[in-house]
Write a structure and sequence with these properties.
homodimer; 385 residues; alpha/beta; Peroxisomal Thiolase, Chain A, domain 1; 9-stranded mixed sheet
Chain lengths: 385, 385
């Protein structure tokens, strides 16, 4: 079967942006098309990954507006929502549109505009994805993270500092990402002494509220070279998505991210790959603890051993398996619908050797995008052709 | 290529429902699986067509919750939003999931819960899909309908009564639909003397605010008979989607629904069919005028001639080309995310000969689902295998 290629990618500056969602999406869309030298006229499917433009901006129908703004009419449009995993779900939708033969050129743009709201307002929109009973009892995502972190540290004899080292590592990586929201290093003491948010997790264990957008352009591999030379595209060799219980406390083991296990299994099977083949990965570090859980769930490390890899520098940029070379959600920021797309943007740039100061040696990369507290996960494997 | 089959279908009662969206979706989901004798365990992709659960209920992440409620974990889930065309977009997403080989069994459930809001509140949520400038000037969808109806009547010398006859016809059809919100006939005088909403359109030219849900179950045709006998499934022989300008007044001719022209062209081409092959159709009669526009855009009648077909009884249930045998959005109701799914439900039932008192003679059916004021349209052609 003809594989699905990614021939263009883009990412706007993440942070506090003085622009509405439509403008952010249009920026990423235009830059993505330019990256591939493609015309908006050629786009026949346009997907927008976005969780909550209605709640954040009182604006819906954004994909139609974007098709209009980009000059891509009469391209088919659709909004893809899978809460904070909307970006990864958008990749799956785009992949399916090409793999099914429905589309010859699909543009995916993910984005969110959030910083005009207070942190409390934004958190409340995000918390609307939790089970109503959990929500009523105040169990927001940060409090789940605190509870899970406590359990993980206890269960696997991990030191509190190992979590902080995720933040230190990712901030260090973000320093070299011109698009990152926070381009500053933090040291262990700064993380360990920052204000408590959900004990044992502190302020620096959490990603920020962010505005931003990112884009990817997909086509059948057989026509990729009509747009770009062979060394300027990547292929989606594997992709999978899965869900876990909506009520988090119903899970057998809160330290096992079941949907990441299932979705990565499917992605590996499609790619004919295993965890050992992966050279670089972007994991959804909305909270530091999530990087441990995913690094184990996708099979990079044994259960309960993810923290050791961080302690030993295995996941550093110069380590054996660099994780979150982009700076991760932690330092890069987390504009919900954009995040999964921006993860794939980073892997794509790394595979093409275009990651600048963040460049690592790699041929196969993996991105894991998480919705809710592992409620839904999409895992994507990208490779050089 | 293996075609995509629909092996199960369901539709809840439409109207004012004392149930939340999750419950409505679960009801349609369970009934759809039961219709095919399929187990939730076998579902690997679950799509939810829904425009605005966040705005209407303060609840997001509904597809994850539904996978949980139905016992379909760890099925991949995603919400499909294309405003009031979310149902048709869900059919396209489900089709792509099967046609791409990603899924062996995809459940699509569309639904919306709206009636707990006032009409003004609900209209405001829907109006958030319009262009911000049009919105600020008060150009809601009903006012677009009024403006367009006036133009149509003037341009094509159509009598005002022809619009009213759409309402009369569809209410008559809805009388025999046990799921319809309004099961009552209305006569021409009732429509013509009802309160003016957007001159020349009156109350009975508009669909109501509705709660409800509908489901469809998709698989590759090659395995359809593992679930049901050959005479109990249909195939999606053609499908297409397209957009038109987001700013309605930028269109060359407001009486031509460009996205319906484009999307039906694509659907006909895929099916190897033309308008003359269609025996029964469901068109998106959110406003009576839209039935005229779509009946012309999808090629059933020449431009400006759709009103004559209604006057002459061509689109009556016993006419040459019955349109909206279900009662249409006008009498059946319009729970946004459910409507496109429910259109296909009606065509599916008609093709299987299971439409009860509404049954017409047919082998090929078409459904046209419209978002905004023709901003985005998905057209689906279903056939007997």
């Amino acid at each position: 079967m003809d594989r699905v290629a990614i021939i263009g990618a883009s990412m706007t500056e993440f942070g506090e942006r003085d622009a509405w969602l439509r403008e952010l999406l249009a920026q990423a869309g235009r830059e993505c098309l330019a990256d591939a030298g493609a015309s908006p006229d050629d786009v026949d499917h346009l997907y927008v990954s976005n969780m909550a433009s209605g709640e954040f901006e009182g604006q819906t129908g954004v994909p139609n507006a974007l098709a209009h703004d980009l000059g891509a009419l009469p391209a088919y449009t659709q909004r893809v929502d899978q809460t904070s995993a909307s970006g990864g779900a958008g990749i799956y939708a785009a992949w399916q549109s090409v793999a099914s033969g429905a589309s010859d050129l699909t543009l995916l743009v993910g984005g969110e505009k959030m910083t005009h709201k207070t942190t409390a307002e934004a958190t409340d929109v995000i918390a609307s994805l939790t089970h109503p009973v959990e929500y009523k009892h105040g169990v927001t995502l940060p409090s789940f993270a605190g509870l899970t972190a406590r359990r993980y540290l206890h269960e696997y004899d991990a030191p509190r500092e190992s979590l902080a080292k995720v933040a230190v590592k990712n901030h260090k990586n973000g320093l070299d990402n011109p698009h990152a929201q926070f381009r500053k290093e933090v040291d262990l003491d700064t993380v360990m002494e920052s204000p408590i948010v959900a004990d044992p997790l502190r302020l620096y264990d959490f990603c920020p509220i962010t505005d931003g957008s990112a884009g990817l352009l997909f086509c059948p591999e057989s026509v990729a070279e009509e747009y770009v030379p062979e060394d300027e595209y990547t292929v989606v060799s594997g992709i999978g998505g899965a869900t876990d219980t909506h009520v988090v406390h119903e899970r057998d083991d809160p330290t096992v991210m079941g949907a990441a296990v299932e979705s990565s299994d499917d992605a590996y099977e499609m790619a004919g790959r295993g965890p050992d083949d992966v050279d670089v990965a972007e994991l959804h570090d909305m909270f530091t603890i999530l990087e441990f859980l995913q690094s184990e769930a996708v099979g990079f490390f044994e259960q309960g051993e993810g923290w050791k890899a961080v302690e030993e520098g295995v996941t550093d940029r110069d380590g054996e398996l660099p994780i979150n070379t982009s700076g991760g959600l932690k330092s890069k920021g987390h504009p919900l619908g954009a995040s999964g797309v921006a993860q794939a943007y980073e892997i794509h740039q790394q595979l093409l050797g275009e990651a600048g100061d963040r460049q690592v040696d790699c041929e196969v990369g993996l991105a894991c995008n998480v919705g809710g507290f592992g409620n839904c996960v999409t895992t994507t494997i990208l490779e050089e052709p």
